[in-house]
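User: Please fill in residues for this 212-position structure.
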């Protein structure tokens, strides 16, 4: 099994005065699949964004494959090392067309093939903001599969099946958990969580292992 390990030590993240992530320690082995569950607003998305390097922790350290984010080169490496399925698209104009999103992962052919498998390849020429929630989520999944083909060793996915129909949820859960990467997935989907090796529960910024 491929993948990069993730090590978090004393990670605390804030949004202004709100402490969203509170002193989190977590080790995820290379190739392990971890589901992150928990109540709304408990800090799950903030923690994923911190791993990606999109949110700078107030304290603590996060290493992916033993590497931090001190330099610009480190941060660029982190973005390539971590494929990302966001909960909602980033604001801004790029990428505008669905095909541009697929191509942005670094492996356009593999992303296109994944889009075919997920039934959204015919939507390439459509602007992203005209896709339905489920179509958009499928497009992001296909892009993430392309990122993995391009060499990403970690997949961070934020509620990747939330907008999908029942068949799509099954399909996406199978596709995500079959990838040869370390997976950290925020989900309220029990079927997806049950396919993972570990389930962690987040409450008020703190993480707890769930016994199964
Ligand atoms: N950009 C922001 N500015 C201010 N507060 C924020 C921001 N983003 C998140 N927060 C706050 O940080 C806390 C954690 O939010 P986060 O989105 O990480 O939770 P979550 O567990 O992913 O929630 P959900 O399950 O609803 O998606 C919440 O109290 C939220 O209101």
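Assistant: Residues filled in for all 212 positions:
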């Amino acid at each position: 099994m491929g993948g990069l390990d993730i090590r978090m030590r004393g990670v605390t993240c804030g949004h202004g005065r709100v402490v969203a992530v509170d002193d989190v320690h977590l080790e995820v082995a290379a190739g392990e699949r971890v589901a992150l569950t928990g109540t709304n607003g408990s800090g799950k998305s903030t923690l994923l964004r911190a791993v990606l390097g999109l949110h700078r922790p107030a304290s603590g350290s996060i290493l992916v494959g033993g590497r931090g984010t001190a330099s610009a080169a480190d941060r660029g490496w982190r973005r390539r090392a971590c494929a990302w399925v966001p909960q909602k698209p980033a604001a801004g104009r790029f990428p505008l067309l669905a095909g541009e999103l697929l191509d942005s992962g670094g492996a356009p052919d593999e992303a296109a093939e994944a889009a075919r498998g997920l039934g959204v390849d015919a939507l390439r020429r459509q602007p992203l903001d005209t896709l339905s929630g489920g179509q958009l989520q499928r497009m992001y999944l296909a892009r993430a599969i392309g990122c993995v083909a391009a060499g990403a060793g970690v997949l961070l996915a934020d509620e990747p099946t939330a907008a999908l129909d029942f068949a799509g949820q099954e399909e996406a859960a199978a596709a995500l958990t079959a990838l040869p990467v370390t997976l950290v997935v925020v989900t309220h989907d029990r079927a997806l969580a049950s396919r993972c090796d570990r389930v962690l529960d987040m409450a008020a910024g703190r993480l707890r292992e769930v016994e199964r």
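For context: Strands lie at 6-15, 18-28, 33-38, 59-64, 82-85, 154-158, 182-186, 198-203, 206-210.
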